[in-house]
Amino acid sequence: MNFLKGNYKIKKKFKTKKLSKEEELEKIFEENAKKRIGGSMVYVSKKKVNWDLEE
Amino acid sequence: MAKVLFINPTVREEEEPKHIPMGMAQLAAIAIKEGHDVQIFDQNAWRQEDDVVRDVISSDNWDLIGIGGITTAYASIKKLVKICKACSPKSLISLGGGVLTSIPKEVMSWLPEVDFGFVGESYKTIVDVLDALDTKNYDLKNVDGLILRGDNNKIIFTKQRTLLHDLDLLPYPAYELFPVKEVYFKNSAMMYSEEGMLATRRMDINGSLGCSLVCKFCYHLGITGDMKYEKNKSGEVENVSFDKEGNYTRNIRFHSPDYIINQAVYLKKKYDVNFIYFLDENFMTMDVFSKRTWLRDICKGWKEAGLVPKKKKDGTWDGVYWSGTSHATLCNPEVLGMMAKHGCSHLVYGYEHFDDRILKTIGKGSNRKTNLRSFFWTLKAGIRPIPNQIIGFPNEDFDSLRMQMKAWDDLGIVTKPHFATAYPGSLWFTEYRDEILNQYKGQGKKLGLHDDLEAYIYDLGDASRVSGVISKNFNAVELVGLREMMLHRQYDKIDQYEKEWRRKHNIKDGEPSTLIREKISKFKKIEVA
After folding, report:
1. Cβ contact (<8 Å) for B41 and A3?
2. Rounded distance, CA B221 to CA B148, Å?
3. How confident is the model at residue A1 (pLDDT cuts 50, 70, 90)?
């Protein structure tokens, strides 16, 4: 992806983390779910789960 | 030639990027016209992780990295300037836009990575700065319109920059340097009208700068002649100041209708746009100022250029729908009818409130009657009015809240109002700065920031979320709760809370529900049916 746009060419190629199909689906799901939050519509962000939580 | 990287910071992270930043796109176009090498990194559009941002910034040797934006982009800017300094230590880093101009000295002290700032309008300043850098002249003291770091890191202002007289001298914004197809066209839809919702290739035009009105919550940041340089006894500029009660200066500027039509035709030919969103502060100010010729000539030109939209059977259209901003007291049925006929689909009105007691305190020049009148005129013309609403004004009370809800009921308005917010540069900010700082006491230290004012700026969003409260009668918790009940028209719950509030503040039934004691004697009870 070329994140720079200008009146001359930048040689460097920018690499982004390529998402797997599962990750892509999760991203789309997160975006859509968050738009509908309220009442029984609750979303769990797996990336933000603190797995080391001790209770 | 100088090599420049412009960076557009993230704003309204919770929303999709919808607008190419006009100021930055114009400055990029000016820099290119002057023969410089320009790249733009639109982080607001791309929303990339830090490692990608680092890669982008390290990809060339920039003479200047120019970052700019509005105050609500502050958090993103703070992060970006740190990355810029770390990844491109030899580049000069500058900051511009409302975020800097509103409180330049403070922002320069909070962001040590920023070498200098553009104060106010930068159309001419950018040319002078790039000319200087092109000749390896890093002493910018002779360039007007800057804030610099002098000896011993002393912050100094250069001379105030004069405003560009003729906006038509400006090149069109460098739209092509932003991810139009990759990002912006995908977010073309705007839920303000049916046509706005169906727009698939929307782009923006800014036809004018400034506004003749003196709303206390609004800020123009020097682009409408509202900024003054405050000097000390030795003649040194100490700081900038903006509107003060009874001391307003205004400078109205607008592009000629020909320039606007040519720009619209250019966007149609180059991008096949089907919707143009006019970002102007207030269309109607310009129309009144031009003695009602400006919008007339734009509409005439729209028709002559073949831009007036024609609906097709499948719901799409040929031509270009458009939208803009209006004002309750400055519009009339003739102008609105003409605009509708030429493709205007919606007009944003800053009605803010429907209680005259509130409206007469905010400097807007409108009242409940003019709000209602313009609302019906606009609907009758066939244009969707977008009536922006605010609660939490300094003198907001239970009766004024009920007045708002009553108007929503009567006019079919479905809204989640903004909270009255004192943005830097506004008269409210000047007036309530100390009270706001009191609310943020200790927050600067707690968040690892320079001071409590920075904590407030860091917290500022688009006012749909509560931040610094300027209401004399309600605190942040109360305002959020009351708004929630207003959304659901829970009149009974609000009545119930008013009783508790009166007990808490020792205000008897029948007395006005306000803590502003001096106003009580003048209070006239408002009956809400």
Report:
1. yes
2. 18
3. confident
What residue in A sits closest to B60 (Cα-Cα)?
A: A10
User: Residue B344 has which token pair?
Assistant: 């205007």
Output b/e per residue, B201-218; b: 16+ Cβ within 10 A. bbbbbbbbbbbbbbbbbb
Confidence at residue B271, expressed as pLDDT on a 0 to 100 scale? 98
B49 and A12: CB-CB below 8 Å? no
Q: Are B385 and B379 in contact (CB under 8 A)?
A: yes
Judged on CB neighbours under 10 Å (0-12, 13-18, 19+), B373 is: middle
At B452-486, the pLDDT tens digits run 999 999 999 888 999 999 999 999 999 999 999 99
CA of residue B325 relative to chain centroid, distance: 13
Inter-chain residue contact B40 with A7, CB threshold 8 Å: no
pLDDT band at A48; cut points 50, 70, 90 = confident
Token pair belonging to B327: 């004002």
Give the minimum alpha-carbon distance from B432 to chain A in angstroms, rounded to a whole number. Answer: 34
Q: Which of residues 53-82 of B touch A (CB under 8 A)?
A: 55-56, 59-60
Q: Output the DSSP codes for B323-371.
A: EEEE-TTT--HHHHHHHHHTTEEEEEEEEE-S-HHHHTTTT----HHHH
- Could you tell me if B74 and B99 are in contact, meaning their C-beta atoms sit under 8 angstroms apart? yes
> Residues B64-82: what's their mean pLDDT?
97
For residue B526, pLDDT over 70 is answered with: no
- Evaluate whether B361 touches B393 at the Cβ level (below 8 Å): yes
The string of DSSP letters for B479-490 reads HHHHHHHHHTT-
